[in-house]
């Protein structure tokens, strides 16, 4: 879902799948300098915005950060640094969408990690792609098969 370079620059990315697990699109964006929690929240916010702009109203959001899931589900104090992002996500969710929030292990999120790292390497502002990028094929197949590879594989 995110990558952070040694320079402190962060990016996020993810894939959006249909009810059969087929990848419908992928996205990736450079975020500049931000915290890991903020980058994960940005990935969720951007994903919900993209899905909403394409007419989808029912979705499942999976995050490998229990902190992020709890911030969105629970109370985020106004003094907490990601509060504006949390409020933006809640506002989008409240617009008539149905969202199921779930926590997943980091190893199950390698497709999103690969997208974020790719974004840092190409130095673009961001992109949305309607086809599965070739470097993601093996990771998507492994994910659909519930095969987990060690990090860095």
Top keywords for this entry?
153 residues; four-stranded antiparallel beta sheet
Please explain how this structure is put together.
The longest helix is centred in the first third of the chain and has 18 residues, at 36-53. This protein is an alpha+beta fold and 153 residues long. The radius of gyration is 15 Å and the shape is globular. Helix 1 (36-53) runs parallel beside helix 3 (83-93). The two termini are 16 Å apart. The mean pLDDT is 75. It has helices at 36-53, 66-73, 83-93, 110-122, 137-144, and strands at 2-4, 9-17, 23-33, 58-63, 98-103, 126-129. A hairpin with a 5-residue loop joins strand 2 and strand 3 (23-33). The strands form two sheets. A four-stranded antiparallel sheet has the order 1-2-3-6. It has a two-stranded parallel sheet with strand order 4-5. It has five helices and six strands.
Summarize the structure.
The chain has 153 residues and is of the alpha+beta class. It contains 5 helices and 6 strands; from the N terminus they run βββαβααβαβα.
Largest sheet: 4 strands, antiparallel
Shape: globular
How big a fraction of the residues is strand? 25-35%
Query: Helix proportion of residues, in percent?
Result: 25-40%
Count of helical stretches = 5
According to DSSP, the number of beta strands is 6
Kindly provide the radius of gyration, computed on alpha-carbon positions and rounded to a whole number of angstroms. 15 Å
Determine the mean pLDDT. Answer: 75
H/E order of the elements?
A: EEEHEHHEHEH
Strand order of the largest sheet: 1-2-3-6
Unreliable runs: none
Distance between the termini: 16 Å
Structural class: alpha+beta
């Amino acid at each position: 879902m995110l990558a952070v370079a040694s320079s402190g620059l962060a990016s996020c990315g993810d894939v959006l799948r249909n009810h059969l697990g087929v990848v419908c699109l992928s996205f990736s964006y450079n975020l500049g300098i931000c915290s890991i929690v903020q980058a994960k929240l940005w990935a969720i916010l951007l994903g919900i915005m993209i899905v909403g702009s394409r007419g989808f109203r029912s979705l499942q959001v999976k995050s490998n950060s229990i902190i992020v899931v709890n911030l969105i589900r629970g109370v985020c104090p106004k003094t907490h640094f990601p509060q504006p992002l949390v409020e933006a996500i809640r506002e989008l969710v409240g617009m008539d969408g149905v969202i199921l929030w779930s926590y997943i292990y980091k190893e199950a999120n390698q497709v999103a990690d690969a997208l974020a790292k790719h974004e840092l390497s190409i130095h673009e502002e961001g992109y949305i792609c309607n086809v599965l990028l070739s470097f993601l094929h093996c990771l998507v197949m492994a994910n659909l098969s519930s095969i987990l590879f060690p990090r860095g594989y």
